[in-house]
Amino acid sequence: MKNLFAIATATVLAAAVGTSAMAANDFGHIYVSPKIEAGKPLNIDLINVSSPAQLEIYGARGQLVSTQDLNAGVTTDLRIQSTQVPGGALTAVLKVDGQTVDTQSITRK
């Protein structure tokens, strides 16, 4: 019985330590249609981040087209309107604390 209690206690402690370690990691995800209609504003469907973040949009030649500061949590229907949005390929880069946590390639059709 003592061994069973010791194993159960060790399992609970390991789970608690693993959960807090995972919660300390920054994460973020960008959900966007891979093909966007040319001439229309760029619409990011959903962004989910663990802490305040920045979304950067780059053109095909690597030029920064737009940036957007985001709060922690879920952001939906984010419209990127910029006179600099090119008609070709774009890359969305999501950064938390200066670290890239997700990137998405977007093709303008």
Textual characterization of the structure:
The protein is α+β, with helices and mostly antiparallel strands. It has a single domain, classed as Macroglobulin (MG2) domain (Immunoglobulin-like). The protein is 21% helix and 49% strand. The chain contains one helix and eight strands. It has one helix spanning 2-24; strands at residues 28-31, 35-36, 42-49, 53-59, 64-70, 73-80, 90-96, 99-108. The strands form two sheets. The chain has a five-stranded mixed sheet with strand order 2-8-7-4-5, with no helix packed on it. A three-stranded antiparallel sheet has the order 1-3-6, with no helix packed on it. The longest helix has 23 residues, at 2-24.
- End-to-end C-alpha gap: 66 Å
User: How many E-type strands?
Assistant: 8
The H/E string reads HEEEEEEEE
| Low-pLDDT residue spans | 2-23
Q: Major beta sheet, specifics?
A: 5 strands, mixed
Structural category is alpha+beta
The CATH topology turns out to be Immunoglobulin-like
Instruction: Give helix % range.
Output: 10-25%
Number of helical stretches of at least 4 residues:
1
Domains (count): 1
Q: Identify the CATH architecture.
A: Sandwich
The whole-angstrom Rg is: 20 Å
Instruction: Please identify the top-level CATH class.
Output: Mainly Beta
Signal peptide: 1-23
Keywords: Plasmid, Signal
